[in-house]
Amino acid sequence: VKLAPQRWQDTPSVDVQKHDVVIAFEERIFDAVIKDLQTREPTEDFVPIHVICLDTKDNPLEAKKQGRIALELCWLLEQAEDLVSEAPGLVDGFEEERMTHTPIKVLYQLCYL
Q1: How many CB atoms lie within 10 A of CB 22?
Q2: Mean pLDDT by 10 residues, the chain (113 residues)
């Protein structure tokens, strides 16, 4: 969780690789994170990072709703014994079950750093 607004691109790789999951709330940010991860030099550990987008309208009501949905998704992902193999299915199932009330699309990409 970010403490304050910050530019993803300015975060050192050693700090980025501490995160198992990155959630973006705009597709353009999701795309920028993916592009950044693909252009960084691989780290010695070559760790997986799951990047998820819950594309959200930028207003307080939607932010409140999607914040709760993001929290539920995080709880679900936390239960996984092997996040690399289970995350795609968990995200797909979550989208099918939990996102039926909203036109918001869920995007998922596994990257390595």
Answers
A1: 19
A2: 78 92 94 96 92 91 88 96 97 90 87 95
